[in-house]
Amino acid sequence: MPLSRRDLLSASALLLARPLAAASGAATRPSSAAAGPIVLAWNENPYGPSPAARASMRDAAADACRYPDDDAAALATALARHEGVGIEHVTIGTGSGELLHALGLSCARAGGELIAAQPTYAELPDYARLLGATVRSVPVDKALRHDLSAMRAAVTGRTRAVYLCNPNNPTGTALAAGAIATFIASLPDAVTTILDEAYIDFADDPDVRSAAQLIEGHQRVVVLRTFSKLHGMAGARVGYALTRPDIAAELASLCMTSPNVFAMRAARASLEDRAFLADCRRRILASRARMTAELTRLGYRYAAPQGNFIFFDTAAPLERLEEFMRARDILVGRKFPPYDTWCRITIGTEPEVEAFLQALRAYARRPARAA
Questions:
Q1: Do 314 and 342 contact (CB within 8 A), yes or no?
Q2: Nearest to 328 by CA among 40, 42, 30, 47
Q3: What digits encode the pLDDT tens for the residues 33-69?
Q4: Four-way CATH pick for 6-50+274-370: 3.30.70.890, 3.30.110.40, 2.130.10.10, 3.90.1150.10
């Protein structure tokens, strides 16, 4: 039976709590049985937070008795400078997840409708549906990319928003910037395009770029970013939206919480730790290339990856690979219907990738009767 996120909290806590040693500007987790299972299930960045972000969190302890209003303003200013936009275009959230919830609430008003790919990251569609929105799911195309033509055809007079996760989770595929711009230009002015760019920092296709420049147009475009992935701060919970000032104000009014002083100071420090971020990206892309090369050698199909994970077809019910890997103390991604034979595997540290590949080779060699 697949493990739930809650089942893995204690294991994830062990991984996050262990001291990480810096090497060439990036951290690595020692490989040992005492470290707990190798968690390659949640698309976390095992190299972060950066040394600067960690130091900032420690230093913030003395100010934990103070409300973080000044820190919110400082982070918004830093983000605006980083993105090259005015501060009025920035909305900070407790992770991009809270901003997705706020957008879901907006979509659900007056029985609105949301269009999303299937499969995609489910936080927004699930929350919007819970609040009463109609969610129209459009299957990905044969290359496991968003089918923009089909998504445009699904738009009705009740459509409030279209959700594009780019690169997409769980498939890892990405849309070209030009295709996104053309798609947005074709939409009615009242429809909001929500671009979730949680994994955009890992894209290496030159045609795959952020759509942040589109927020300056007349159409309703919201670009979401997070510190959970490249910045390695999934446990700290801080994200942000880039959008028109009127939409930014609307989003802020729908948010229910704000990031804490530790998260916001760490985020500011991480933005400046460019050497660490570059090294993390280099390591993850190198490991991703190594993994796709081995998947090709072993004969496994996979979607073109542009995130810090790979979606590949195990050619058998996913539970078989899950059980095989669990017996070797490796936790892999859950099932994403209707792709019941496909596995989403997160790029871990170099030793974790080696352990996974060794196990995958053993899985591929198993006797036919074991399948």
A1: yes
A2: 40
A3: 446 899 999 999 999 999 999 999 999 999 999 999 9
A4: 3.90.1150.10
